[in-house]
Design goal:
Number of strands: 25
Radius of gyration: 30 Å
Number of helices: 13
Distance between the termini: 41 Å
Strand content: 15-25%
Structural class: alpha+beta
């Protein structure tokens, strides 16, 4: 508790003193037995819950599938890339197996499972265990590091009061979070409605709103073209070349690059220029193929890959920024979807099909007025997004401040009639000593039907 004095009746102990043993088995010794398995990736750390479990026969068991979980356990991932993912085990997962890369914290009679879970998900606990992290390229903590971490233990009746209070307070923040979580979809829907209106010409602020239906092929100053495909390296020498992930919602990220061996004569034909518009030519996701981004002025000569198609617009007919906004409209997306083809799970659009996409284009001076309205409307949306991010961050901070107060003994009043936690621990230690050594964790001689 960072040097703070514990309230009366509390005791500073370690996790090991408050948890009970669990069992492990070797499923491969039961080759035809069905098992259900919670792997590390099934733990959603954002919401602290467990997703879909996997099923297998003992003969097909993953090498780490060994530990048997029970309802009320707290799972704590100890390996990368899921380090410190945490989730309680619900009744529906009772008897499932989990990985040896997950510490099982099973509450003994000294601690309520919910109290233990709340302590483990607190920032204070995360900082303590984080100090034990292995400094290698594969950061991890050991079960022993988790079990030796301190636990500020309240008397059992006070634990119940604390758990009830935490639940009451976090229920409010949970409702707020659910309301907030609905906002991104609403924000995106509003953005799409603005771009759809712009495509239709509903944002025109000029009496001259005559629009011509033109294909992309009619809007270009030069024919569309693909980039180049040459194996490159992450560092010079070579000509800088964009990666596909350089194409972002905010434009072209010139730092997403590699370096390729390419002569000047070939490179100059595919150098990126300011106001070039790039479209993703292929992607494993249908939603990402045809995605576009406008290039700002490159900091240095740089070429683009064959995974992108360049559209170099005739700026006497269409403003690049206006075109970039219109490209995000649902009417354009519908045309892309109608033209893409799939091969071996990859969606692609050709230059020919891209060039046939149509846009209703007003005069350039009308585009200027529409651009002003689009920027104004999308600017308001961006303010909403910033406010959403701020509110989400504050909710997370609020939940952690509740936990911090709880484990300082400041969330609920103490009752001098409660049995002190130290007396409870001593009684449990005596009972354990009388029962003899705890059974060694290891294999059970017969199969467990975990399905």
């Amino acid at each position: 508790m960072s040097g703070r004095e514990l309230p009366a009746g509390w005791v500073n102990t370690v996790i090991r003193e408050a948890i009970a043993p669990y069992e492990s088995i070797d499923p491969t010794r039961m080759p035809d037995q069905p098992f259900s398995y919670i792997d590390i990736g099934a733990i959603d750390n954002k919401n602290h819950n467990i997703g879909e479990a996997k099923k297998f026969l003992g003969k097909d068991a993953p090498s780490r599938a060994r530990r048997i979980v029970a309802s009320g356990d707290v799972l704590y991932s100890t390996v990368r890339p899921y380090l410190k993912n945490i989730a309680p085990v619900g009744a529906e997962f009772d008897g499932f197996l989990t990985s040896t890369g997950i510490a099982i914290l099973r509450a003994s009679s000294a601690v309520l499972p919910e109290y233990l879970k709340n302590w483990v998900v607190s920032d204070n606990f995360a900082r303590i265990v984080g100090r034990s992290m292995d400094g290698s390229l594969y950061p991890a903590v050991r079960d022993a590091d988790v079990e030796s971490a301190p636990l500020p233990l309240a008397p059992l009746p006070e634990q119940r009061r604390i758990v009830e209070k935490i639940e009451a307070l976090t229920a409010r923040s949970r409702l707020a979070r659910e309301a907030l979580n609905a906002l991104p979809a609403l924000i995106d829907r509003y953005r799409q409605s603005i771009l759809a209106a712009a495509f239709r010409g509903d944002l025109s602020c000029d009496g001259d709103d005559e629009r011509r239906s033109m294909t992309v092929g009619e809007l270009v100053a030069e024919p569309t073209c693909n980039g180049i495909s040459i194996r490159g390296t992450d560092a010079p020498p070579g000509v800088p070349a964009l990666r596909l992930n350089a194409l972002t919602d905010q434009g072209i990220d010139f730092d997403a690059r590699r370096y390729i061996p390419l002569g000047e004569d070939r490179a100059k034909r595919i150098y990126v220029r300011e106001n070039d518009f790039f479209v993703s030519r292929g992607n494993g996701s249908l939603d990402l193929v045809g995605r576009g981004a406008l290039a700002s002025n490159p900091p240095e000569p740089i070429v683009f890959p064959d995974t992108m198609i360049r559209i170099r617009l005739d700026q006497t007919v269409v403003l690049p920024e206006w075109f970039a906004f219109i490209w995000g409209a649902p009417q354009i997306r519908d045309q892309i979807r109608a033209r893409v083809k799939t091969t071996a799970g990859i969606w692609k659009i050709s230059q020919r099909d891209l060039s046939s996409i149509t846009v209703d284009v007003p005069n350039v001076h009308v585009q200027v007025g529409e651009l002003r309205k689009i920027r104004q409307a999308l600017g308001a949306i961006e303010k909403c997004r910033v406010q959403f991010d701020t509110a989400t961050s504050r909710l997370a901070t609020l939940d952690q401040s509740i936990l911090a107060k709880a484990f300082r003994g400041e969330l609920v009043p103490q009752d001098p009639n409660d049995e002190p936690a130290s007396v409870l621990l001593e009684r449990i230690r005596a009972e354990r000593a009388a029962a003899g050594p705890a059974p060694r964790r290891g294999r059970r001689p017969k199969a467990v039907d975990a399905g």
